[in-house]
Amino acid sequence: MKNSDFTAAENRLISITGYRFLYTGWISALLILCTLAFAVIQAAQPTYLDATADTEQRVEDLLERMTHEEKIGQLSKPTDVREEYKDAIREGLITGLYVSDPAVSNEYQRVAVEESRLGIPLLFATDVIHGFRTVFPIPLGLAATWNPGLVEQCAAVAASEAAAHGIRQTYSPMVDVARDPRWGRIAEGAGEDPWLNSVMAAAYVRGYQRGDLSADNTILACAKHYVAYGGAVGGRDYNTVDISERTLREIYLPPFKAAIDAGAGSVMSAFNDLNGVPATANHFTLTEILRNEWGFRGFVIGDYDAVEQLVDHRVAADTAEAVRQAILAGVDVDMGDVYQQHLLEILEQGKINESSIDQAVRRVLRMKFALGLFEKPYVDAEKASEAILQRESLELAREAARESIVLLKNESNLLPLSKDMGSVAIIGPLGNNRGDLLGTWRGEGKSGDVVTLLEGIRSKVSRDTRVIYRRGCGFMNDSTGGIEEAVNAVEQADAAILALGESANMNGEAGSRAFLDLPGVQGRLLKEVYATGTPTVLVLMSGRPLAISWSAEHVPAILATWAGGIQAGNAIADVLFGDYNPGGKLPVTFPRTVGQVPIYYNHKNTGRPPTGEKFTSKYIDVEWTPLYPFGYGLSYTEFGYDRIRVEPVSGEINRFRVIANVTNSGVRAGDEVVQLYIGRESASVSPPVKELKGFRRVYLEPGETARVTFALTPYHLSHIGPSLKRVVEPGVCNIRIGGNSRDVISTQITLHERQLVGETPPVDSRR
């Protein structure tokens, strides 16, 4: 190579290298600029809008940016939807609305997110109690399944349907222990027992929230009504409650604790006063117990208008004073407008500190961030209908209704009926009724979705079977004009099925009753049908236990079917004609007469327990025992119990395994709910005669035996002692296992060591 050629080549190399260096420099500079630009953008974006930031950082960042008015807006929730609310939403003065229409929720959400200063999304809520559009049995009926896994599935379906419509909070579960069936809202809970209520409370919360509130198919649970609302004097809704702190902690608080432990993000304060202090102004329950003892970090919402009702309770002279008491007690959100009217006023007057408002706002924002509302404020309104009434949901509704049915009586094995009978008469106001089978608080349930009992039976019997329907009478009126026609129809039939009970509006909120008999002239209709001699089945549909002593004595077959939801007709027909063997158990005691009320299985023994002697705790005109005990329910097969034993857990204090065998000794496969009860022979405070501490629903083939094991922990064996602390005390403890609270096999253990116990119940006592 010539020297000149070498120089040219060298020059080209140098030139290329220079270009490469220049190119690389530009790339590096561009990357630096992009990094700087991204940093600027990040700096401009508030922390509260950064989905990757810690939730508490987001809460604090947003809180610092809010005016007093905007803070109060996060604590104010109207109970309806109005066009004029849009201006308030633009100003950040409303935290959420009561909406179930996805198009409407998107419309108002757009105003909040895109037109308000801070863009804080709304939280839409409604009463999804036992289903949204797919309506399941009422909660008292779901409790009769004694199947928390099934209840969790039902809650999950309700959550999916509701969330698809923009709803992200439900005012459920209601976990009020209810010992008085006159109280209409007994229909909304799990009955009289704190353990069963606790298990069901946790199941609802798991189903609604699924452990991930940010998921599109979840909703925020709200445990209500805090607290002791179900202890209303006289069974009258909204009435006063006067109980000891021991009873509060032993009976009424555990289900709420179970809901909180399961992750419930909100709680609703109750209407009632408790020992003279209204629940909405009760610092002891709302702050000392709920927040300080239990560590609850969600928010409390007052029931509708409950804050303003402090004036009617006569503990507040005016509404402004009511607001001051409520916010200081621990009510974060007002379901109404009185916080909006008075909070700023009393803040400026120095009657409350801003820190009280800030703490409440933190709790609300924390849940909005957890729900992912800032990232996903809208729903797909066009696809909302795809989430409702899915085939699997309808199948679940039918299964839930079947499992909820309790067979109370089956004399001479009248049930199941033959599908090939010549004729059957369906009699009663609930025989071809759609709306009342939805029960109280039916969400967005439609009467047209309901399968009636008449339809269920017609689909079940043979084509040659003649099905006759007569209404017979109404619910509450005294008209007897239809009874004769109904009796004539029964006289032509091979069997009569009477669908009697309560309409939906006879229970639920403001549905208290002074009498528990079949309402109206239904009792007369039943007696006249029975008098025909035609084999008679009573299908009892109600939201509470009814006093049916005459029926229990005379009618050969009785089913308690509650308000069974949209698949009630199919489910009841499945049971009536033997395609399903009933296995439900009563979650509440059935009294002989209203004069026994309140009546519940876990009563105290008293110093003069009932005996045949006169001067003991009983009545002179009726048996003191229930008509049907708690936990009771028959089957088309028979179950027997034996070989109960208790084994200590090695190396553990006050821990045991309880084991028993249960055998299906009949000829049909079926479910049995195995129930575990304990009872102290002595304690430092008077103990209940027995307490439910575990249960398990098992399926057994004919002749099959299951070995059922329960864990007994210190919590199971503890009670609230003289110091109001939960404690295990030395002494003899009776261990009972059986198919209801009355019919059990038993053994005893002796506890030797005293032990203080925490307040977290292990709600599943299976090993």
Per-chain topology:
Layout: H1 3-44, H2 55-65, H3 68-73, E1 76-77, H4 85-90, H5 102-115, E2 125-126, H6 139-143, H7 148-164, E3 169-170, H8 194-209, E4 222-226, H9 245-252, H10 254-261, E5 266-269, E6 273-274, E7 277-278, H11 283-293, E8 299-302, H12 319-329, E9 334-335, H13 338-348, H14 354-370, H15 391-404, E10 406-410, E11 423-427, H16 453-458, E12 466-470, H17 483-491, E13 495-501, H18 522-530, E14 536-541, H19 549-554, E15 557-560, H20 568-576, E16 639-648, E17 656-664, E18 670-680, E19 691-700, E20 705-712, E21 719-720, E22 726-728, E23 731-738, E24 744-751, E25 755-756
Parallel strand pairs: 1-9, 2-3, 4-5, 5-8, 11-12, 11-13, 13-14, 14-15
Antiparallel strand pairs: 6-7, 10-15, 16-17, 17-20, 18-19, 18-23, 21-22, 22-25, 23-24
Helix pairs in contact: 2-14, 7-8, 7-15, 8-10, 12-13, 15-20, 17-18
Describe this structure in words.
Among the domains are: 3-44; 404-596, Glycoside hydrolase family 3 C-terminal domain (Rossmann fold), CATH 3.40.50.1700; 639-756, Immunoglobulins (Immunoglobulin-like). Helix content is 31%, strand content 17%. The chain is built from 20 helices and 25 strands. It is globular.
Assigned CATH architecture of the domain at 404-596: 3-Layer(aba) Sandwich
For the residues shown, what is the average pLDDT?
94
- Examine the coordinates and then state which fold CATH places here, giving the name of the CATH topology of the domain at 404-596: Rossmann fold
Number of helices: 20
What structural category arises from helix and sheet content?
A: alpha/beta
